[in-house]
Design goal:
By secondary structure, this protein is mostly helical. Helix 4 runs antiparallel to helix 7 and helix 19 crosses helix 20. It folds into three domains: 239 residues, no CATH class; 88 residues, no CATH class; 217 residues, no CATH class. It is globular and about 80 Å long. Helices cover 77% and strands 0% of the residues. The protein contains 24 helices and no strands.
Length: 573
């Protein structure tokens, strides 16, 4: 009888694996992802080939190492970007749908459940990697790449898939939602990447960057063998950890520590405004009554508010949330960097570029996620139905959901405006007097302020529209984030690619690059700067103004569409 059970297990009759593969095969987005990825990969390879190897067929012989390394690097980036979203929802989605407990009622053991989920989500990633086989064959045919290098690259990609997928599955078993699992997995991958780039770790844990000829083949033996052992051990440990915490964390409550911090920050600003209003309006009884409630809530039931004045309470009892404290510390560091830059080299403006770029990156990474999550989180937590039964209109519901996001946008916009004002003064003082200094400063401030107002509002309403249309939370978040990143990067890469391939004349590359907001922000920063290659022409200003006008029209159209069709999107009608 034990032998019969062993043989039954050996046949790998895994019903959950079949269910996973059938569900993935029925989703249209899986085929869309494969087609888009194939187009991007083949297009990038053609761009690399035309840029580096298009001198002639004879001159390209023996130069296959460059495209080979390019393909392997692109595949590694693909694993880190696409495998965590594919694997993070393996167990977290079951928790969100409250179906993980039903799986425990079946005869599946924890190991079988883990392995079937793991293999079911790993197969789609391997199909993406197989798309590069024709391109690797082309690189091999050019010469300079040995069979051992092909084996080493294949082993590296496969082993990386194993441990990244196991890490993502462990995060899915640990966290209560797919988004939390995805953030945790990407955080661990980033930490491991930084750790592996220090000291001797690149030689021990990654594929050698330089592929030289090796008559004996021993060159590949130690690095690849050691990497295989390390990756397999990491895979086993992550899967073992996922099996151990599967039942213990199957019914944990959803927690969002960052969301709690932002709620605390939001409440802090509300209380602060109430107290300041009571201090400034000393004869306003209503303001003092509201401030008394704030003081009573801050002191607690045991506190004696009679010994507290509003000014004393404001200084002694209003605790600063962690997010605000971090923002203050970061702001002080930026202020020190700006001051040092002004003292050492007032004409360079490097610190301003770093500060503005950092704030824009923070804004364009947080605003899409919060906008798309405003509706998706209500659907996931099953609060949307009760909200729709209230007499609130759809516009009022959306305004209430977007209120914290609007305050976050204001929180990000204020330091940007301050930096713009300081940079305008510095440019006016340091620019050559023969140049139109005042006109440059006016154009700089106008374009910069318009970018803050238009871009953040456009991203807010666009990602909210995605959250209204896409019902799955992780899909809405990833679509919003990829849309913003694509808007910023694809026009720049597309303009360069089309010019290099000869499909577009060089004079049309600049108008195409102005589709990206990065070009507009870079043009504004170049206004009035005394640096080589930073001259801004009148045509560039016209293109920037046209870009902002179209973006404002698009923002108005998307906002109007969201408000007009909100009842239908929310399911009320």
């Amino acid at each position: 009888m034990p032998r019969r059970k062993f043989l039954t297990r050996l046949r790998l009759d895994w019903p959950l694996l079949g269910k996973e593969l059938l569900e993935q095969a029925s989703r249209k987005q899986m085929y869309v992802i494969r087609v888009v990825y194939a187009l991007v990969l083949f297009g990038a390879f053609c761009f690399y080939y035309l840029r580096h190897l298009a001198e002639g067929p004879v001159l390209a012989l023996g130069r296959g190492m460059g495209p080979f390394q390019f393909l392997v690097s692109a595949q590694l980036v693909t694993i880190y970007l696409f495998l965590p979203p594919l694997m993070a929802g393996a167990l977290a989605e079951e928790k969100e749908r409250d179906t993980l407990g039903l799986l425990f009622l079946t005869d599946l053991t924890p190991w079988e459940l883990i392995l079937q989920k793991y293999v079911g989500r790993l197969i789609p990633m391997l199909t993406l990697l197989f798309l590069s086989l024709p391109l690797l064959a082309i690189a091999y045919s050019l010469g300079g790449v040995s069979v051992g290098m092909l084996y080493a690259s294949a082993a590296t990609l496969f082993l990386t898939c194993l441990w990244v997928g196991a890490l993502a599955l462990e995060c899915s078993a640990h966290e209560a939602s797919t988004f939390q699992a995805l953030v945790r997995c990407w955080g661990f991958c980033l930490a491991l990447s930084v750790f592996c780039s220090l000291g001797p770790m690149p030689f021990l844990l990654s594929m050698p960057r330089t592929y030289g000829p090796s008559p004996s083949g021993v060159y590949f033996l130690f690095p690849i063998g050691f990497k295989a052992i390390v990756d397999l051990v990491m895979t086993w440990l992550f899967l073992l950890r996922a099996k151990q915490i599967l039942e213990a964390r199957a019914f944990i409550q959803r927690r969002n520590p960052f969301g709690q911090q932002f709620k605390q920050l939001d409440q802090y600003w509300k209380d602060l405004r109430k107290l300041l209003r009571a201090i400034l309006r000393k004869r306003d009884r209503e303001a003092h009554a509201i401030a008394a409630q704030v003081v009573q809530r801050g002191l607690g039931v045991k506190g004696d508010e009679r010994i507290w004045s509003l000014e004393g309470f404001l200084l002694a009892k209003m605790q600063i949330p962690n997010v605000l404290a971090f923002a203050i510390i970061f702001g002080v560091i930026v202020l020190i960097a700006l001051t040092a830059n002004l003292v050492l080299d007032p004409k360079s403006g490097g610190a301003f570029v770093v500060a503005v770029g950092g704030l824009w990156i923070l804004a364009l990474l947080t605003v899409p996620i919060q906008s798309a999550n405003a509706v998706a989180s209500e659907r996931m937590n099953e609060r949307l139905g009760p909200i729709l039964t209230t007499p609130l209109t759809a516009r009022e519901i959306l305004d209430e959901w977007l209120a914290p996001l609007r305050r976050w946008i204001q929180f990000l916009a204020r330091p940007l405006i301050v930096i713009f004002a300081v940079e305008a003064v510095v440019k006016f003082k340091t620019q050559d007097p023969s140049e139109p200094r005042l006109m440059n400063v006016v154009f700089y401030l106008g374009i910069s302020v318009l970018t803050v107002w238009i871009y953040l509002t456009l991203v807010q309403w666009s990602c909210l529209w995605i959250g209204l249309r896409v019902r799955n939370q992780i899909r809405a978040l990833m679509t919003s984030l990829l849309l913003v990143v694509g808007w910023c990067l694809l026009p720049l890469a597309g303009a360069s690619y089309l010019v290099e391939t000869g499909l577009l004349r060089s004079e049309w590359s600049e108008p195409l690059s102005f589709i990206s907001p990065v070009t507009v922000i870079r043009t504004a920063e170049a206004l009035g700067r005394n640096a080589a290659g930073s001259a801004v022409t009148a045509d560039m200003l016209v293109l920037a103004a046209s870009h902002l006008g179209l973006a404002a029209a698009l923002m108005w159209g998307i906002r109007r569409r969201c408000l007009a069709n909100a009842d239908r999107y929310l399911g009320r009608i």
